[in-house]
Amino acid sequence: MSRKEKPYIRPYRPADRAAVYDVCVRLADAGGDARGLYRDDDLMPDIFAGPYLHLEPGLAFVLDDGERAVGYVIGAADTAAFAEAFRREWLPLVADRYPRAERPGTPDEYMTELLHTPERMVLPELTGHPAHLHIDILPEYQGAGHGRALMYRLLAALREAGVPRVHLGMLTANTGARRFYDRLGFYEIPVSDAGPVTYLGRSTQTGAGGAAADRGGVMWR
Questions:
Q1: Is 125 a member of any domain?
Q2: Each residue of 183-198: b (16+ CB within 10 Å) or e?
Q3: What percent of the chain is predicted at pLDDT more than 90?
Q4: Which domain holds residue 101?
Q5: How many CB atoms lie within 10 A of CB 170?
Q6: For the domain that residue 87 is a member of, what is the CATH number?
Q7: In 96, 134, 137, 217, which residue has its Cα 20 to 30 A from 6's Cα atom?
Q8: Domain for residue 170, yes or no?
Q9: What is the SS3 assignment for the chain?
């Protein structure tokens, strides 16, 4: 398939890892290019992409343009279990590359602290939305329905696994991403002390009313 043909969605394969990392870092600055922002361009992917590819490859799907992955959606079916596996299986693979600072003070050190504290993902307000996800698509492939298709592919996989609801965390400043999630029926989940992050959730159902009708897991305060 040539680049002129329509991109398609397929399951992630290990050979896609470099392309997924590339997509991740190109969109890691609130939707903008984060290459060169940190000492190591793999820092952001090693936090927000690599562990999912390593620990839950069955919940990873890519948008393929015929030559490489140009977008992806990745997820974890059980956030609490994922955080435990992250510490047990993923962190030992990358910890030496990113030593933890005693008192984080630089952007690199703050992001490295996130890497070393996977338990940060487990929040009581999100218990009713046990799964979580990340999605990224290169800018030139956005706005053509690929994001919706990727999202629905993951929602179907989660639904088949018996997961009723999913959540995600996004930088509040990324207003473009928020509009995208709003169109897909995500709703805000109030989380105390969320800092610069907004948490959104929805049902894994994709039928009529599936997203908006089921907010039973939201713990309103």
A1: yes
A2: ebbbeebebeeeeeeb
A3: 80
A4: 8-155
A5: 21
A6: 3.40.630.30
A7: 134
A8: no
A9: CCCCCCCEEEECCHHHHHHHHHHHHHCCECCECCCCCCCCCCHHHHHHCHHHHHHCHHHEEEEECCCCEEEEEEEECCHHHHHHHHHHHHHHHHHHHCCCCCCCCCHHHHHHHHHCCHHHHCCHHHCCCCEEEEEEECHHHCCCCHHHHHHHHHHHHHHHCCCCEEEEEEECCCHHHHHHHHHCCCEECCCCCCCCEEEEEEECCCCCCCCCCCCCCCCCC
Residue 208 CB-half CA count within 13 A: 0
Closest CA to 201 of 191, 211, 186: 186
CB within 8 Å of 189: residues ≥ 6 apart: 125, 126, 129, 167, 199, 200, 201, 218, 219
| Among candidate residues 142, 141, 61, 47, the one with its CA nearest the CA of residue 100 | 47
pLDDT in tens, 124-144: 999 999 999 999 999 999 989
Distance between CA 53 and CA 59 in Å, rounded?
8
pLDDT average, residue stretch 147-169:
97
Measured distance CA(160)–CA(219) in Å, rounded: 25
When divided into structural domains, the chain yields a total of 1
Amino acid at position 3, single letter:
R
Is 134 domain-assigned? yes
* Token pair of 93 as six digits: 């693979």
Distance of CA 44 to the CA centre of its chain: 11
pLDDT digits (tens, 9 = 90+) for 26-81: 998 877 888 988 999 999 999 999 999 999 999 999 999 999 999 999 999 999 99
